[in-house]
Structure formats: structure tokens, C-alpha cells
Write a structure and sequence with these properties.
Elements lengths: L1 H5 L3 H32 L6 H17 L5 H22 L9 H23 L15 E3 L4 E3 H23 L1 H11 L1 H6 L4 H23 L11 H14 L4 H21 L7 H12 L10
Antiparallel strand pairs: 1-2
Helix pairs in contact: 2-6, 2-9, 2-10, 2-11, 3-4, 3-5, 3-9, 4-9, 6-7, 10-11, 10-12
Length: 296
Amino acid sequence: MLTDLLGISPQVLFGQLLLGLINGAFYAVLSLGLAVIFGLLNIVNFAHGALYMLGAFATLGLVQFFGIGYWGALLLAPVIVGAVGIVIERLFLRRLAGVDHLYGLLLTFGLALVIEGVFVKFFGSSGISYATPRQLEGAVNLGFMVLPYYRGWVVVASLAICLATWVLFERTKIGAYLRAGTENPRLLQAFGVNVPLLTTLAYGYGVGLAAFAGVLAAPITQVNPLMGSNLIIVVFAVVVIGGMGSILGAIATGMMMGVIEGLTKVFWPEASSTVIFLVMAIVLVIRPAGLFGKTA
């Protein structure tokens, strides 16, 4: 058996593969939101991690203060945080249209620091626990490992939202309008399409994806104001590997990097925290546009 030859138990190998799939699911959803925002708006959204954190806190607020269950929060939290993203786009990012990407990066980085600082002030940095939804408690014994129901749900829900997003942007008229708006917004507006409104909604949708990932993460990790900053650098690396702005690249690379990270923890634990950046460096040397990015 392969595991015997490698000197590891099947439980350890498949357990790390499961953890890799779960991490990959978060990487895929978060990098997908970044890819949507960059690919359609040309904005490097460094506030993405803070908005992911907002999604987790919105879930806590909806459940603890308004009595809305997990399933209601799963629907409402992305909408609420997406609305926050729309306000950010209308008040700040729209003013940077047409200027260098660096200004958008600096602005969103500053917004991230402000949002995180406010939440640290009121909630501290130790974190708040959030219980697993009652309907998803427990686990199933697969023989070689025990799979918690909630972690299986995270993978399924992430793949479902990724597939729905790909269909929306690649196979619908709205997606065609958005892609055309990035290429020639004046021509599209001449046909009667409200390009600024599409831009605003696209940013809100990308932010909503970050909040959706935050809702999924709340029962798994401690909800704290710095949870996004600990993850955003890795997610940016995933986006670069897949190709900036590539929706398919974000989905495929996110899942793939999660699995690679999980396997690295088995065979070379010391490199598990840096393997994604090593892959990014290799990809940039071989294919600077990323695995799925468009070459000039």
C-alpha cells in the first residue's frame, strides 16, 4: 500500500487531505472575490481580508443579537457586507477610476487597517467562539477517517458558490456586459448599459463572496478582528498563481493550493507555511501571467 511505503498512516494522509480541501475551499472563495474585483474593476482590493472578517462578525451579530439562525445568516451576512462594499466603492474607489493601481491598493490597505482597528477596539483580539450549527453537528466514519459534517458542508457550499459565480460571469448576458465594460466602457454605455451601476454591483458581489467565506469560517475558527489579515497574503498569492482576474484560475488554484499545503504538512511540515509562496515564485518565473492568466 502507498501509505505503508511512505511510512505514514492512512488516517494522517487523508486527514491532511481533508484539511487541505477545507483550506482550499476558503482560498477558492476568497480568491474568487479578489479575481472578480480585479478582473472587472482593475482594483487590487487589499481590504478583502477585513471584509471577510466582517462576514464572520455579521454572522455573530445576526445570531446572537437578532436571533437569526445560521442559515439565515448565511444568506443575510453576504448581502449586508456586500452593501458595505457598495458604499466603499461609491464613496472612495470610484474617485480613483483611471489612475494607477497603486492608489487603489493603498486606499484599500488603509481601509483594512481602519476596519480592523475599530473591531480590535471594541472586541479585542483574543477571538470569540461560534458553535457549529445544530443540524451539522456530528461526523461520519468513512473507514479510513472521520469526516465532520460541517467541514464536508464547507467544501460543498464553496464549490457550489464558485460554480454559480463562474456561470454568472462566463455564461450570462450580465457577465458579458461586465467583461465588455472592462474592455470598452464608453462603447458599452453608448448602447444604453449603465456601466457605473454594473461596476458598483460587481464590487459588491466580490465583497459578498468574502463575507460568504467569513460565514463558513465562523464555526471553524475563532472569530477575531485579525482573522482576515492572517489569510489575505496567502489568498493574494493564490490569485497571482491562477492569474490576476481569472475566475477559473481562482477556483482551480485555490483548491489545488489547499491540497498541496495539506500534503506538505505530511511530508515536509516545516515548509507548509511557505509552500504556496514557493509555487508562486516558480509560476511567475515560468508563466508571469499565471496558470490561467492571459498573456500579453
